[in-house]
Amino acid sequence: MKSDHLLWYEKPAATWMEALPLGNGRIGAMCFGRPGADLIKLNDDRGWSGSPANELQDGFPDAASAQADVGAARAAVAAGDYAAADEPLRRIQQKYTQSYLPFSDLHLTITAANGTTDATDYRRELRLKDAVHEHSYLLDGHRVTQSSYISAPAGVMVIEISAEHPDGVDLTLALSTELLELDRLAVGGRLGLIAQLPSNSAPGHESDLEQTKYDRTPGAAVIGGTFLRLHHDGEERDGVGAVGASGIHRATIILTTATTFTALGMPPLHTLDAPAAEAQRRLDAADELGSDRLLAEHLADYRGLYFRSELHFDRRDDAAMHDDLPTSERLALASASPIGALGSDPGLAATLFNFGRYLLIASSRAGTLPTNLQGIWNDLVQPPWSSNYTININTQMNYWPVEVANLAELHEPLFDLVDALALRGRETASRIYGLPGWVAHHNTDPWGFSTPVGMGRADNAWAYWPMSGPWLVSHLSQHLQFGADDEFARDRAWPVAASAAAFMLGWLKTDADGTLGTPVSTSPENHFVTEAGERASVAASTTMDISLIRELFEFVVSLADRLKIDSSTARACAAALPRLRAPQIGVDGRLLEYPHGLPDWEPHHRHVSHLYGLYPGAERWDADLLAAATTSLDVRGGDSTGWSLAWKTCLRARLHQPDVAGELLALFFREPQDGIAEWAGALYPNLFQSNPPFQIDANLGYIAAIAECLLQSHRGVIELLPALPPALDRGSVRGLVARPGVEVDLEWKDGKLVAASLTSRRSRTVTVEYDGRSAAVDLTAGARARLDITLLAPLESLPA
Fold first, then answer.
1. Which pTM does this prediction carry?
2. How far apart are CA 335 and CA 669, in angstroms?
3. Do the Cβ atoms of 83 and 530 come closer than 8 Å?
4. Close Cβ partners of 571 (under 8 Å, ≥ 6 residues apart)
5. Shortest CA distance to 173 belongs to which of 115, 104, 224?
């Protein structure tokens, strides 16, 4: 239905959380849609503070001192003195990563010839099928329409204005920035603003630090600019620091941004002229194409991604009709419904799924930087957690849905970040640990920050976590599992995976029982209770550590086999695998998060790191471990931050628990308000997910959670509707992807599968499971195979 692909409102945005996002992976825009005096807040994905020099700008403990501190922590943990392990690890903490910052603001003033700005009959919308934002209204009794999109092929934002007023309208454009302004241009319909980003930007949670610092030394920071051209059919009328025209019936604004950023992990250029020159080339090319071709190429490019998959949930017969209401009203009604949001308005669940895919396409394209904590949209000079790459869950969750949602090429920016970290993290591995390979810790930035953050005062529960490498490498593994070729395996996956494994092989230690574990270990952002009743975070061999290492070693062994590589690293991984500590179950039936049954300090903690092996990992857990995972989730509780809700939903889906998965999904559709928990997911009016505050990981994790309820393929078989929530019992989905690269279309009614078809790029035989029955299906390359559901045989009757 149209409402599945549309966000619309009867009022302009009063706040940033009501504005609507556009993006092409590089340029981000938040459109307020204000008549008279409109505002578009702009970001550039390269608009980060700092440079590679920031990580070590105040020096670093020499290798001997750093390794001695790690050794002291190892000794304390081995002696069971967990509290004593904390201080030496603080001594290896550096400052903080750099921040993703607001870039510039575009101000558009539109008035009637008589000067009035009063607007009536207002509407604004974001058309997800087109990636076009539009708002229209009556000005002096005549229709004014403003539509905007950001083209990935052309690298520009296009704003089209049409006015039906017989005398036309007057238009004025101006640019502003919160950055350090260096130069500006405003003449002859051309407007430009050049600014420098800070050379250092402290996170907002460190209020005693100098928040922003500017250093004019060449290469100390990124320089960037916003440039636009105005084409119109009126009379040109420039002002001080602005451009404009009067008597306009039609106008086209073409805008772009450019910076001196060069590449992930590399220093910026030293030249002030580079942004203007790059922008000039892009604007010239866009002018040559013209408005019609710009739009046609934008739509062809975007729709080629967006229409690969589509989801629809049918409304129940007893559900109220909300489809024609403004999005904010739909959300309010669904949130307040006594039968729950999903039962009240299942179409809204499909809209959020499609909106998530839209956000992913808009924020991650080949050649751009990966999606950060807020995608590519940020309006704060001190954004929450620096709007950086938090790589102990959040960055990875951003990319959970790309393969299953048929958007595999959007994975590329994350792979580029892994390459940069593998390069920068070699020095960190050598300096801090005296080990080969590469390592990175809990967060990073485009400069490849790989050391622990915290300035010696941060809680090691989050600051010390040398395990992000294996988790990031798992995304290359996923890409291969969903069908990437041998060239990717050889050129992209093998170098970084083998190097990450080299570090982990050196990091492992042999326990008294002969098993292998990690000598110093945390479970991200959680704490346990010591025997003395103290809160501590540093132990050894947390369950997540071992799950990540097991997955990494298995991947390296499989890659060496696939590529016929004779590798000592792969042989060492194969030898280590059977010795890795197995997951343990505690006396209370939960899967242990910490060794020796150390109890949680905060039993309801939002992280569920010890369940990584269940999802996003795919360990073959037996019935006892699956039951322990269920008990762990029961004790943790359901309600939490938005991203935690997404993870827990994926876990419940893996456990084939559709009722609980549905209960968790319903919690996404609350409005931020009093009466819900302090750290509880909700939706802002523009459907950005509140953790709080806004983080895009929950929007993108929601896609993965829905997909996991509808399709699973991690066990080597394709499971159809493994955890369909009861409130979503009627619907259809097209274009989801199962391992090893099979597109799946499904239709169901009253909770029962009524149609299914599979398409593969290569001829192969796959096993399909549904409702306790199974069948082998022969697929011919490129041909759609319709599954006869009546022929599925009971699982127990199949040969072993």
1. 0.97
2. 6
3. yes
4. none
5. 104
